[in-house]
Amino acid sequence: MNTPLLYTFRRCPYAIRARLAISVSGIAVTECEVSLRNKPADMLRISPKGSVPVLLLPSGEVLEQSLDIMQWALAQHDPEGWRQDRFGAATLVETNDGAFKQALDRYKYPERHRNQPQLASRQQPRHEGEDFLHQLEARFANAPFLGGERLSWVDAAIFPFIRQFAAVDPDWFATAPYPKLRQWLDGWLASARFASVMRRP
Ligand SMILES: N[C@@H](CCC(=O)N[C@@H](CS)C(=O)NCC(=O)O)C(=O)O
Prior knowledge:
single chain; alpha+beta; Glutaredoxin; Glutathione S-transferase Yfyf (Class Pi), Chain A, domain 2; 4-stranded mixed beta sheet; binds glutathione
């Protein structure tokens, strides 16, 4: 095997962020689209935790976390300067992957949380998620991207999750008080980069 092998799932936000970084790096990888209900035995052998994305390198090394895959790709080749983080925006990724992702899951699937009555509706988790949306909107007061004047890995790492949050209730999101965040999201959704990583296998 001369080409890295990426186990991925088209709509998974973690896999999307990994594919965005691989795409900007220009590194060729072979993609294996995984069914989450029927994960390939080869993938589970190298990564028993069973989540995507997973990257198998020609050396046999396995990268099992989306952020590790992003950093690996950009360390090889970073033609658009995505690794820059002049404003300490990496902490936003921690919040995204922690509290915001938890709120997002409850917002998307409130019925899975019926044992917690306050979560049985979408209001509460949306409200929790909005803490993060406020933080992002505040960032955009100073610069067009989360890491500053140029697009960076931080934008790519967070965008797929905001896309999901916005899609739960598009009518609400369209008028919610996050105009700059909306503009940033629309830019991503219309981008050739995003289209290129969402092509059907
Ligand atoms: N921390 C992991 C999380 C990856 C993750 O949770 N991926 C989901 C899909 S979006 C998954 O594979 N879940 C396993 C399953 O649904 O069986 C990463 O950053 O790569």
